[in-house]
Amino acid sequence: MIKRMVLGLLGLIAAAVVGLLILAYRPAIDPIEPPSATTFSPALVAQGEVLAGAGYCATCHTAKGGAAYAGGYAMKTGFGTIYSTNITPDAATGIGRWSEEAFRRAMRQGVARDGSHLFPAFPYQHFNQVGDDDLKALYAYLMTREPVAAPPREPDIPFPLNRRVLQAGWKLLFFRNDAYGPITGGTPEWNRGAYLAEGLSHCSACHSPRNGLGAEKTGADERYAGAAIDDWYAPPLNAANRAPVAWTKDELFAYLRTGATALHGVAAGPMSPVVHDGLSKLPDADVMAIATYFADRFGAAGERAAPDAALAKVLAASAGGGGPVDHGANLYDAACASCHYNSGPMPLLVRPELGLNSALTAADPSSLIQVILHGVAVDEGLPGAMMPGFAQSLSDTDIAQLASWLRRSRTDQPPWPDLDRQVAVLRTQSESSRSTH
């Protein structure tokens, strides 16, 4: 009896393995001879450059200090670290021998030229919304980059999760061709913004929470509800956003175009390259289209950013109405007030008012802690402006008390719990990350 049960179980396991292999099978696409750069028209390559910016291709496929598009960028997931691949036209280690057909399949189905499945850290579930003409232009741009020999780095993911065959099961559960679009129904500008945001720009990949298997949550109240990303926090991009002054179309455009607005602060951390290395390639009309799309998601499409009661309250706190003085207040006066103090009816762009920043009103304090620890470099937020980091001069307790006082004095949001521990964790993780790059 036991022997029959064991044999039956082994038979079921064998059948499941065979079924998974059949489900996962994708044929290899024949390699090509690397095409000459003169194969592609300059206009097509120029269009591809803009699209590569919209998709942040260089950001994710360039390791710190490495050659552009040569891969090696580390992406932390709940299962381990995945490293981006070389997408230069190197014949041996890049995509030089990939045909346009192979490139299109990778973008839309998450399958490499050799038939292996790509990990969903590569957001093919968004890229499958990209039109044929745009994929052709993107292919032309990448195939005319300088070839770089850079072998792929294997993911630091434990067995058996590192087996690519299992991605077929993940796709069966979560991959839908229409999961993120196409979205239509608004004005031509709105539709253009939706196409960019949900396709190449894959905005929800960072700004939406994920389930236990790493898939984006797609419920109406979950998409764009905010999420932790690379030890930072990507705030909600919907009506759940807690910014005291509305994120209007004009405010969104200014932020995405320049990296800063007086009413919402500066782009830092993972958002900085999105603005300065990615969206900077897009024309104003495309950036405005994205702003139009998200203003609608914020529920502020028809609102106008103007001084109001919320702004007046924040500025009053900045002027000294922040409640009882404590150690956090003393730290602010000593380290922050000289740069962040605003006395007029409107805050100044070069003197960011912290009470208006999403980092302070967010449910997660990670972004605020990161900025206090490491500052904002001159090439991150507002071009030419910078903020020093205080990792060397303030202790974990100091930073926790400063963050707590700012939250209490500048917002009506509940206190963040266990700040000392969060500061210590982020400091350690940041130091570890810097030592490995």
From TrEMBL:
The keyword Heme applies. Residues 427-437 have a biased composition (Polar residues). Heme c 2 binds at C203, C206, H207. Residues 410-437 are annotated as: Disordered. Gene3D superfamilies: Cytochrome c-like domain. InterPro entries: Cyt_c-like_dom, Cyt_c-like_dom_sf, Cytochrome_c-type_DH, Membr-bd_ADH_cyt_c. The keyword Metal-binding applies. Its main location: membrane. Keywords: Cell membrane, Heme, Iron, Membrane, Metal-binding, Repeat, Signal. It comes from the Bacteria. GO terms for molecular function: electron transfer activity; heme binding; iron ion binding; oxidoreductase activity, acting on CH-OH group of donors. Heme c 1 binds at C57, C60, H61. Transmembrane segments: none annotated. Pfam families: Cytochrom_C, Cytochrome_CBB3. One of its GO terms (cellular component) is plasma membrane. Binds 3 heme c groups covalently per subunit. Its cofactor is heme c. It is found in: Cell membrane. Residues 43-146, 188-298, 323-410 form the Cytochrome c domain. Heme c 3 binds at C336, C339, H340. This is Cytochrome c. It comes from Tahibacter soli.
